[in-house]
Structures are given as C-alpha cells and as structure tokens.
Amino acid sequence: MPSPMQDLIPHIPSLHSEPLAAALQQRIANKTKPLGSLGRLEDLMLRLGLILGSETPELHQPQMMVFAGDHGLVAQGVSAYPSDVTWQMVENFLAGGAAVSVLARQHGLDLVVVDAGVAHDFAPRKGLIIAKIAHGTQDASRQPAMSVEQCATAINEGKALLRQRPGNVLLLGEMGIGNTSSAALLLARLAGQPVAGCTGRGTGLDDAGLTRKIGVLQAVLQRHAEASEPLQALAAFGGFEIAMMVGAVLQAALERRVIVVDGFITSSAVLVASRLQPAVLERCVFAHRSQEQGHALMLQACGGATPLLDLGLRLGEGSGAALAWPLLDSACRILHEMASFASAGVSEKQAG
Prior knowledge:
alpha/beta; 6 strands; 47% helix
C-alpha cells in the first residue's frame, strides 16, 4: 500500500495513567455502598474517567452519527434485501421513523445521517450530511471495493466530519445493505478467522442464502489474498460508510472523545482503526453483543471487549449504542452526585 495511505493515520497515545486510575478507584470505593457492589458500572466509571482525563467526567453534546453506503457485492446475492433499501432507510431516518431516530429523541442525542456512498441522490436537508464518495462501492468479487484514492478520501472525510461536530461523545451507527459481508470479510482477514464463523444472516437470509453468502465471501477473500494489511483490507472489502467511520473513530480517539460502538459493522470499523492505532480501543465503550454470528469473534479481536448489553439485537443503525447511552450517563452522575461515606456521615465497613 503506498505511503500516502499510512500518512492518513494520526498517532493515538495511550491513556495509561496510574495516578488518575488510582484516584478514580479510590473515589468509586468511597461511595456509600459495599465495595464493588455496582459491578460493571464501576468499570464503566473508571473507563469514562480515564478517557476524559477526570475524576469527575462529564458527558456533553453526544453525537449520534449514522454513516450510510451501498455495496457492489450485493449483486452476488449476499443480502435478503435489495440495495434500494439503503436510501429508503436513510429517508426513514430523516423523517424520524427509524428505531435509532426514536431512541435519539428519547435520550437527547444529536442525530445526523452521513451519505458516505449511497446509490441515490438525496435532496439536501437538515440532519443529512452529503459526503458521497461514489454511488456505492464496486463488486468486491470482481475488483477491490474501493480504489486506494477513494479509501483515503473516505477516511479523510470521516476525520473532517468529526472535527466539525461538538461534544465529547461519538455514538456510531450505520446503514448499508450488504455491509455485514464487508464486516465479515474484514474480520476474517484481520483476525485470521475462517469466514464461515464470521458470517451471519445479516438482514435475514435463510439457510440456502447463508450458504451462498459464505461461498461468495470465501471467493472474495481468495481473490484479494494479497490484501493483508488493515488499509489494504479496508480498500478491498470495506464500504464507504465503514471507511468513513474508520476516519471518524481515529479523529475521535485523537480528540479523546468517548466512542460508543454499536454492533457488528461499527465494530469492524473500530477493528480496522485499532489495527492501525491500538490505543483507539482505550477510548471505546462497546454498547452491546449483537446476535450477528461474527460479533463475538469481533469483540474478541477488539481486545476481548465486554459489551454493556446483550439483548439479542441485530438491527444496526446505532440502536444498541443509543440504548446503552443511559448507562454512561448514570455512571457519570454517580461519580458526581453519590455521597461518600465521609460526606454522608455513614460508617464504613470495619477491617478484619
């Protein structure tokens, strides 16, 4: 891969800070509760404090960004739905009718939809960012999904879009018929996993359709056997929406924002970004474990991440990230507002 692609990647330093970690752990331990009694919520408090560099982290102006794009590989029958559903669902997002639209309204999340490469021309309007690289990627069974230049442009655009958004939290969402295939291919190549274990039913394939999908993906992997490095794999297999999310994740990590990762497809963008800059994972909160077959392997590949929720979701859109948002809010509120033993005049457990 030419060096200009590698030049796109900012250095992401580790957040490791023993003094801050110790201060946070002490603050959590001194709350009016038995030690460790808030379970994984205490782990979340620690993570948010480390990401935001504070014993009393505050979350403000959370940005839900749904990246949309079409995939040429859909021509090979890897999806139960036609590509037209991508643009129709974008319209549904903009009309406020999708699940993530409802959840964003409920939780006060600023929702924008990014046209990264949908095979449709949208009329400009509020809530839509038109950043189209092309009208969908190429058919990866015949050629790389993206050219090197297109991949670089998509990453740069994702970085630029994130820089323009306020707040200190990025919640990732996506829409793109066929993008479970891209995510499965990226997982198989970058994690060295058999493609059959990485591939699920996506939008609802039956058994015959799943068998066909696995066969198509195996052939795509063989065709692009030389695409072994993260950026090579991204160009060969990824969608424009995934590449743009890679850029947004890298920029969010650089700016020390909290990155709330939704499901299988958004996790594939984080996987690529983390293979470029491992410390990206220190900024991530994984919202949920998707029912999509490969997601458990994807979480393992992302540093053995433990998601907050396991609700059997497989919708995408950022719906799981939006559902997990109140847990992040609660973690910060407890750090700020819950009394300590000393401030409440409550006796602590005696030693011995």
